[in-house]
Amino acid sequence: DAKTTQPPSMDCAEGRAANLPCNHSTISGNEYVYWYRQIHSQGPQYIIHGLKNNETNEMASLIITEDRKSSTLILPHATLRDTAVYYCIVRVVRTGNQFYFGTGTSLTVIP
Amino acid sequence: DAGVIQSPRHEVTEMGQEVTLRCKPISGHNSLFWYRQTMMRGLELLIYFNNNVPIDDSGMPEDRFSAKMPNASFSTLKIQPSEPRDSAVYFCASSPQAGGQGASGYTFGSGTRLTVV
Fold this sequence. Notes:
Chain A is built from no helices and 9 strands. Chain A is mostly beta strands and 111 residues long. In chain A, the strands form 2 sheets. Chain A has a 5-stranded mixed β-sheet, with no helix packed on it. A 4-stranded antiparallel β-sheet of chain A has the order 2-7-6-5, with no helix packed on it. Chain B is mostly beta strands. Chain B has strands spanning 5-7, 10-13, 19-24, 31-38, 42-50, 53-56, 65-71, 74-79, 88-95, 107-108, 112-116. In chain B, the strands form 2 sheets. In chain B, strands 2, 4, 5, 6, 9, 10 and 11 form a 7-stranded mixed β-sheet that branches. A 4-stranded antiparallel β-sheet of chain B has the order 1-3-8-7, with no helix packed on it. The chains are: A mainly beta (111), B mainly beta (117).
């Protein structure tokens, strides 16, 4: 699976949009981009995933660049409860290919 | 749906003792995964099962660790004998399809915090 690079930490003001970047310059054509987050003391939680097109769900939006070498997770109106570690993972979706988590970005939402 | 259920939530044991962690996956999920999380190493995949069969245990750190899945609704991770360096949070996750192709990928449990003294 392609390696990902994320900033180790970010701050965001409550109510503002949080934009979390991820670089995956070695991504291949059949690899998806997944985002998970882990709130302190809890198990990781799925947020969103995509292949080429931008995606949006009730939690967040995922913007993938045209060359697919980077992506941005957007939390449109960050709340204090969004304070967590956010993991960007790229992987081929097939049997035997599992999720491997890196170090992620620690997002702190500031009141 | 109660989600993935792990027990116990916390376990404190003495070095050398046997420790058994338990996991009940979401009903209907065919794949089950055990992860370990420490500050130093982050989240590590230990082993995963597909249809109750262990598929890849290359992440299991050593022979002291063993995992079983006797049926579709129950799995155990055993450490015997336990050592202080095994102290970590152990997560279980399940997925409706092998490899986590489902839209939500994995669903994780709340974890078991193991402390070996």
